[in-house]
Design brief:
The chain is α+β, with helices and mostly antiparallel strands. About 40% of the residues lie in helices and about 15% in strands. A 6-stranded mixed beta sheet has the order 4-5-3-2-1-6. It is elongated, with a radius of gyration of 52 Å.
Length: about 280
C-alpha cells in the first residue's frame, strides 16, 4: 500500500512539472508588439557579405509583418522565399509601403514592405524564429538586379572608357568637319569683300588684298550680290571733311551778318519816316 501511494505521488509530481514546463514554453513564444528581429541573408555566392532585414509586427494589422532595409533591387518573391523556410502560415500578399529615396520611388533606395499572413500565427513564427535561421542566399529564391553593386558600377565605368585609337579617330573626324566649315566660311568672306552693301559701300578690312571693284561692273550672277548694278543712289550733300565744315559755318555766319544789316537799315528808315507829334 505504501509503495502504491508513493508511486502515485511521484506520478502526480511528474505531471505537475510537465504542466509548468508547458506554461513556460507558451510564455516564451509571446513577442512584444514593438520587438524588432533581424533576419540574415547574402546576395549570392559571389557576394557573400552578410546583410540584414529588420522584422517587426504591424500594429495596424495583427496578421501583418513589417520588414525594413529591403534593397530595391531584391525581388519581393525572394523575401517570401526566406519566410517560407521557417514560417508555415500561408502568405496572402506582399506590399511595398515606402522608400528612403527622393520622391518615395520603389526602384531605388531601401524599402519597407508589409507581409500579410492568413493568420496571426505567421507573425509570431516569423518573429520567434527569425534570428535562429539563416543566413539565406538570395539567388536561390529568385532573380535580383545587381546593377547597384560596386562591381557592376566598376564594369559600367570601364565600358565608358574610350580606347586611345578610337578616340583619336573621333577627334580627327570632328576636326576635319571643322576645317571644312572654316574653309567655306573664309571663301564666303572673300566673296563678300567684293560685294557692295545696300547703300553701295564696300567694307575694306586689313586682310583685304584685292581692290574693291565698282558696283557698276558687278555681274548679275555674282553670288552674295545684295544690290542691282544699275541702281542709282541719291546724293546727300553732307559736309564730310573738316574744311567743308569750316566753310559751311563761315557761309552761315555771313548770311546772318547780311540779314542783320538789312534789318538795321529797315529800322532806320522806319524811324526817319515817322511823323513828329509834340502832343
Amino acid at each position: 500500500m505504501v509503495s502504491l501511494k508513493k508511486s502515485g505521488k511521484i506520478k502526480r509530481g511528474e505531471k505537475k512539472v510537465k504542466a509548468e514546463d508547458a506554461e513556460v514554453s507558451c510564455s516564451s513564444n509571446v513577442i512584444p508588439g514593438d520587438a524588432h528581429k533581424c533576419l540574415r541573408y547574402s546576395l549570392s555566392s559571389s557576394f557573400t557579405c552578410e546583410r540584414h532585414l529588420f522584422l517587426k509586427a504591424d500594429a495596424s494589422n495583427e496578421s501583418a509583418l513589417l520588414i525594413g532595409n529591403v534593397p530595391s533591387y531584391l525581388d519581393l518573391d525572394v523575401i517570401k522565399g526566406f519566410l517560407s523556410e521557417f514560417v508555415t502560415t500561408p502568405i496572402d500578399g506582399v506590399f511595398p509601403l515606402r522608400s528612403n529615396s527622393t520622391g518615395n520611388r520603389f526602384d531605388v533606395g531601401q524599402l519597407t514592405i508589409r507581409i500579410v499572413f492568413s493568420s496571426r500565427t505567421g507573425v509570431e513564427q516569423a518573429l520567434v524564429n527569425a534570428e535562429t535561421v539563416g543566413p539565406f542566399v538570395a539567388e536561390k529564391y529568385g532573380p535580383f538586379d545587381d546593377t547597384t553593386t560596386i562591381q557592376a558600377q566598376m564594369a559600367a565605368y570601364q565600358s565608358r572608357v574610350v580606347d586611345a585609337n578610337s578616340l583619336m579617330q573621333q577627334v580627327e573626324e570632328v576636326m576635319s568637319v571643322h576645317d571644312e566649315e572654316a574653309a567655306a566660311a573664309n571663301r564666303a568672306a572673300r566673296k563678300r569683300r567684293k560685294v557692295a552693301d545696300e547703300d553701295g559701300w564696300i567694307t575694306v578690312t586689313k586682310g583685304s588684298r584685292t581692290s574693291a571693284p565698282e558696283s557698276k561692273k558687278m555681274r548679275e550672277d555674282e553670288p552674295l550680290n545684295y544690290q542691282d548694278a544699275k541702281r542709282k543712289h541719291k546724293k546727300v550733300d553732307v559736309a564730310f571733311y573738316n574744311f567743308q565744315i569750316k566753310e559751311s559755318k563761315m557761309k552761315h555766319l555771313n548770311e546772318l551778318r547780311a540779314k542783320f544789316e538789312e534789318d538795321k537799315k529797315r529800322v532806320a528808315m522806319a524811324k526817319a519816316a515817322r511823323k513828329f507829334k509834340p502832343l
